[in-house]
Specification:
seven-stranded mixed sheet; Aminopeptidase; about 325 residues; two-stranded parallel ribbon; alpha/beta; 8 helices; 9 strands; disordered N terminus
């Protein structure tokens, strides 16, 4: 089997509740499967085009040192489940692809390392900590680099987290993920003189109490974010919005999700480095409680998103 197809197959099995690798006995009450020592937490597939896609939140490999106090079924509600399958067409189109295998509830790669709640930490924290009230909005919700609460406000840990343990998470997960994204974007830009980076996410149909600054909000089918035009040419973002609306989807732009660290860090439109976040409403393709794929919804979605990416492959943002 081709390595890309083998990877997709393995991830598909891991994402199914009760499948091999997703429900083995683990430490604490969670019952999650242990990642093997030295197992890569990130996959990066080089592209040949100017387009790069990354999925930071679809990981299903729960490391043995997680030590959460919640059952696996509760932890898994935080995943952008199946996003890696929706975009499985990407490598075949020459699109660069980066995927996290660690779960976001273990470490959120879409945060800066300064976005951390030091009240969770046992021992001195040696890294800088942000004091910017806007940056810390997610931290106050319990959604910093290391999550404190689930989307429903349930504490994830019944213990303090040793500083050394969290530093190891950064070394094993955050640093390799960001290095892979930066490398893919740099390579795309070097080949073509511009890059189009799509940061791939999914969102619940209705925002929970601790998920966003807008609890209870019923989400559109898609939310496109470029941090108010600061991470991509708005004309490019509006092309994406228009394409999706033409396909019959409801689309919001920069509300309630503008994009967070990954587009902020790598989007520099003045240098023809465009980064755009795409959020997909999970009700379009899955059962939000069981995490089971809705085959009809999934097939429609992956067909339409492949067509979108094919358009991006022939679009030069310098001509917009």
């Amino acid at each position: 089997m081709h390595p890309v197809l083998r990877l997709i197959s393995q991830n598909f099995l891991q994402s199914l509740p009760g499948a091999a690798g997703s429900g083995a006995a683990g430490s604490g009450a969670a019952g999650y499967g242990a990642a093997e020592a030295g197992q890569p937490m990130v996959t990066s597939i080089a592209g040949t085009s100017a387009v790069v896609l990354d999925s930071p939140h679809s990981g299903t490999v729960y490391p043995a040192d997680f030590g959460a106090c919640l059952p696996l079924a509760t932890l898994r509600q935080a995943e952008d489940t199946h996003v890696e399958k929706i975009y499985a067409f990407a490598p075949g189109l020459g699109v660069g692809w980066v995927e996290a295998h660690f779960p976001r509830i273990y470490l959120d790669a879409n945060r800066d390392t300064t976005e951390i709640d030091t009240s969770m930490i046992e021992g001195d924290w040696p890294l800088p900590v942000s004091t910017d009230p806007v940056v810390l909005q997610k931290v106050r919700l319990g959604k910093g680099l290391i999550w404190k609460f689930t989307d429903e406000g349930v504490p994830i840990y019944d213990r303090m987290l040793p500083a050394a343990e969290l530093l190891q998470r950064i070394e094993r997960c955050w640093k390799p993920y960001h290095a892979a994204v930066a490398r893919a974007i740099d390579a795309a830009h070097a080949r073509h003189g511009y890059s189009i980076h799509i940061n791939c996410h999914s969102m619940p149909s209705v925002a929970a109490s601790h998920a966003t600054l807008h609890p209870g909000l019923a989400h559109a089918d898609f939310v496109i974010g470029d941090r108010d035009g600061s991470t991509a040419d708005p004309a490019l973002s509006m092309r994406i919005c228009a394409f999706l609306r033409e396909r019959g989807y409801s689309v919001d732009y920069n509300h309630p999700y503008k994009g967070v660290e990954l587009v902020r860090r790598y989007g520099k439109p003045a240098g023809q480095r465009h980064s755009i976040q795409i959020e997909i409403n999970r009700k379009l393709y899955m059962d939000e409680q069981t995490l089971a794929l809705d085959q009809a919804g999934y097939l429609r979605l992956t067909t339409d998103l492949k067509a979108l990416v094919e358009q991006l492959l022939v679009l030069d943002p310098r001509a917009l």
